[in-house]
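User: These chains co-purify. Model them together.
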Amino acid sequence: MSETPTLLTLRGIVKRYPGVVACDGVNLDVKAGEIHAVLGENGAGKSTLMKVIYGVTQPDAGGITWKGEPVNIANPKAARALGVGMVFQHFSLFDSITVVENVAVALPGRVNLAELARRITQVSERYGLNVNPWSPVHDLSMGERQRVEITRCLLQNPKLLIMDEPTSVLTPQAVDQLFETLRLLAAEGTAILYISHKLDEILKLCDRATILRDGRVVSEANPREETEATLAQKMIGRDFPECRRREHAAGPIVLEVAGLSLEADTPFGTSLKHISLRVHAGEILGIAGISGNGQSELLDALSGERPVSDKNAIQLNGAAIGQFNPLQRRELGLTYVPEDRLGSGAVASMSLTHNALLTAHRRGMVRTGMVSYRTAREYAARCIREFQVKTPGTEALARNLSGGNLQKFILGREIGQEPKVLILAQPTWGVDIAAAAAIRQAVIDLSARGVAVLVVSEELSEIFEICDRIAVMAGGRLAPARPVAATNAEEIGLLMAGMFPGAQAAENTASAATA
Amino acid sequence: MIQFPWRLVPRTQPSARMRVLAPVMAIVLTLLAGCILFASLGLSPLAALKVFLVEPLSSVNGVSELLLKASPLCLIALGLAVGYRANVWNIGAEGQMYLGGVFATGLAIYFHDSGGPWLLPMMVVAGAIGGALWASIPAYLRVSFHANEILVSLMLTYVADLLIKFLVYGPWQDPAANNFPLTVSFSDNALFPLFASFAGEWLEGTRVNVSLLITLVALPLAWLFMQRTFAGYQLTVAGLAPSAARYAGFSSRAAIWMALLISGAAAGVAGVMEVAGPLGQLNDRWTPGYGFTAIIVATLGRLHPLGIALASLLMALVYLGGEAVQISLQLPKAISLVFQGLLLMLLLGCDVLVNYRVERRRAAATAPVEIKPAEIKPAETSPVEIK
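Assistant: Joint model of the two components:
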């Protein structure tokens, strides 16, 4: 590909934010017709770099050339005029209007809708996107919405298409379909910048990879000559840690949910419909599914943040705990590591000692209403020691810890309470690879000691790595769990799209997966 | 749209030291503003400030008056700070103070001729109950109907004011008062003893009384509650991170109730200090404004007991200074309200600058950009760069 012209060149891009250098002299060359991965952990500077290219933010230093000409991309409008399109991780579509209307609102002047719809159909057919311009957006699955966003970009004939973490909301089947489209586009000469931290996707799809770490380019690689392990090694700067599995020997049922139904408490929430599950002692049950299919409602009901009226719907070692609040449930041995670790799992402006007190106060930290800060400090120190939390000490503020270190601290705090059941929500979301491996290992070790563990995660690879059984949530329903050895990503993907008995709620997701 | 050329950008990590120093800066700026104010009235600023801030403290009597005013201010502000730490904004301490005074007055009138040494402690308890009851109305409405406690507690202050007027014009009016709207003067059993009555001649003529001891006991208790009890910790978590409190299972209802009942009771006791102290009765013009000033005291004291103690002394001095300039310089007494207002405004301004920095808007963001609207072409004409 060396003879193809270079489309976009970045030289020495520097972008500082208060306290961090997000990009520190980044160079990048993108050639026409290539699928170019930008790979890096959370916080490596990928998103900032894309914002610079799309004109969302201005670099503090460095230059951009487009087809050999120096350019100044002042805003996204200027970027689009050059021929740069971007599909964001979070879509920007209005739910209540149709696809063609959504495309029209972003265009200047009056638009002939029928004419526009014809073009949408043309473009979407050409690239196998299968977008019906007259569908209301609220009827579309996440995969379909993403294809609307891509179609909207393609209407402007981009020379460069930026895809920011495009697969986080897709089923495995929808991912394959997306890759087909991207390959077709590349074959026609469109350059694609593919932002991701998922190594398998990059191996499968990309021609070239630029690897970022701490705001710098650490390596350029040809994915065809790499493996997941070598790519990961380049991305994190050391060997890719792997988890040790243990023999699965399930004990008696510890946590049982039977026929749990719960109305959504927000207009955009998902109601839970007759959920049943069992977690045995010494077992890790994984709940897979695309976010927004009822996971947060299920977690609220299990943790006690939203007690349910039917007390028998949730049972812990035979005790009906449906109506208990989180304090009472923790009393019985149910602890919980929430998804939002800096807002819910810890108080950002408090020290680790104070944060130990948040849930572990039963462990001798409160006597006759008075707090023993000495005990709390010792407990925090033990969490830091046993889980290798990188921090100056127990008096460091929670907000000054990195995501991975704070997560290790919270996990340590919950495990230190010697629970019978541990519930984890997105345990390694936004966590660096080394910390993620340590967290997964700690969870596996905990279950080996006979604790029942429930993991809710969007990362299918994580669920396959650590869980014994997998259940899938779709449209507020839960498919029956199946042993991890007896299933595969293909089958789980179909379940994620709602293809199981009684899950009629998610037909449109299903069509996304099968179309 | 017209754009202001400067904008505020949040600081990633506001300096803890500046947060503590902000009140000091606000005080200095208030003094400067005071100098300008006095100068514009044709007075020598330094001489006027001396009358305002130094002369009130130049006598034993002045110090006694300072403590007499600072004590209820400090007590109310301690109660408010407990609530403010939990993000429960009780603005109606003034009304809760009135109810404390009313409850204590009821006892003082009922046992006017039959009282004993037990009467005063009972009045203090009754005052605390009265203030807490008045604060329980916004607490109940907030917990049950999500009614905003700021509005409800504030509006109830005016209801409390009318309640006092009804009582002193009606059932509780002193029959011997020639139709003046006031109650009987309390018996000695219903009054806080003056320090002057047992502490010797050097306190001769001063009005400071033993109710000061209540505030002196409340200060370390408040510190202990906020810093060392689990209940205080739960309130702080509820204020700093409501979703963390929910996750931990701390009841937000309990936090609202506790915050309002504590601040209401503290304000109620402050009301007793007044009616059973310098007032010695209840009348229709009893509106010292301590309940509102205490909001400034709590904010200026950074919600910390030590800071609140210092801030209450300062605000009491501003009250006395207002009276002093009225007498010596014939300025309106409202000057102390002007100083209070200046101090609060400047403090809030300093706090903004502690949390935000001022940045000039970038030229690029405001300059018009010359870009042609993106054209829409059918996909067929899409140019292919390479083959």
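Residues 363-387 of chain B have pLDDT under 50 and may be disordered.
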